[in-house]
TrEMBL record:
Pfam families: DUF2849. InterPro entries: DUF2849. This is DUF2849 domain-containing protein. It comes from the Bacteria.
Length: 98
């Protein structure tokens, strides 16, 4: 599956394409298929986001899981301040990141 990520232009937050708009929650990301790059360009042109790019992911019971660790870390939030991270519903965070 292919999912789309970017940074919100107003806040700088990491966001994921949810089909009808952007979400800060990775588990709300939807498969964009072959349309991801076009959606990203359209959303950047509308000045909603910046730096949009398509990410390979697999669908799991807990939602999409990016193939690369960089995007898994982006999905959780800052690594230097654990109090600022977005925590997935799953209890075992190490299984989610690694």
């Amino acid at each position: 599956m292919k999912i789309l990520t970017a940074n919100d232009l107003a806040t700088g937050d990491v966001v994921w394409w949810a089909g009808d708009g952007w979400s800060r929650l990775l588990e709300q990301a939807v498969d964009t298929g072959a349309d991801g790059e076009d959606i990203g360009k359209r959303e950047e042109a509308a000045r909603h986001v910046v730096g949009a790019y398509v990410v390979d992911a697999e669908q799991t019971a807990d939602g999409p899981r990016p193939a690369h660790i960089k995007e898994r870390i982006r999905g959780l939030g800052p690594t230097v301040r654990p109090d600022l991270t977005l925590k997935p519903e799953a209890g075992d965070l190490t299984a989610w990141v690694i």
